[in-house]
Amino acid sequence: MQTSIFIDDHVMFRKSLRKMLEKDAFPFYEEWERAREIPREFWLKLGENGFLCPWVDEEYGGLRLDFSYSMILIEELERVGQGLGSGVCLHSEIVTPYIAALGTDQQKRKWLPGCISGEKITSIAMTEPGAGSDLAGIKTTARREGDYYILKGRKNVYYKWGNGRFSHCCLQNRP
């Protein structure tokens, strides 16, 4: 007996995404891998077609779809190649949710629409010497100075895909 969690809307989402990827990603993937960059035009095309951050609330420009649509996005991007899948999913399923969950309403209104459209591409800096990606072991600190924060520490790896326009920097701001 075969069962599926997917309904007709999922099938349509997958077909639309697959058709776009066959035209706009498969033919160029090896070139993108060599350049180590996902072109801005591709990000914008993903956004234009509703494939970035499909889970974001409608009030911020999202579709408010459940996680099963994100699963489809991940599966189809991975069919093209691991670099594309990890790059887009880092933005859509890992970094942007921090804004949605922890941001103020003002921050959400400022950043989420661009994350959905592909105009804003997120990145993250979290690994550190001696801590790796163990967030509990992070030593980088932030100290407020007027309207700015002064960051002090080191990062080993900075995860950025496709000309990221802003980044999350994992740090501690405890004294």
CA-CA gap between termini: 58 Å
- Given the C-alpha coordinates, what overall shape results? globular
Instruction: Write down the secondary-structure element order.
Output: HHHHHHEEEEE
The CATH architecture would be: Orthogonal Bundle
Q: Given the structure, what is the number of helices?
A: 6
Describe the structure.
By secondary structure, the chain is α+β, with helices and mostly antiparallel strands. The protein has helices spanning about 10-25, 30-35, 40-50, 65-80, 80-100, 105-115, and strands spanning about 120-125, 140-145, 150, 160, 165-170. The chain has one domain: Butyryl-Coa Dehydrogenase, subunit A, domain 1. The strands form two sheets. It has a three-stranded mixed beta sheet with strand order 4-1-5, with helices on one face. Helix 1 (about 10-25) runs parallel beside helix 4 (about 65-80) and helix 5 (about 80-100) packs antiparallel against helix 6. The longest helix is centred in the middle third of the chain and has 21 residues, at about 80-100. The model has no long low-confidence stretch (mean pLDDT about 85).
Write the layout of secondary structure elements.
Elements: H1 8-24, H2 29-35, H3 40-48, H4 67-80, H5 82-102, H6 105-117, E1 122-125, E2 141-145, E3 148-152, E4 158-160, E5 166-169
Parallel strand pairs: 1-5
Antiparallel strand pairs: 1-4, 2-3
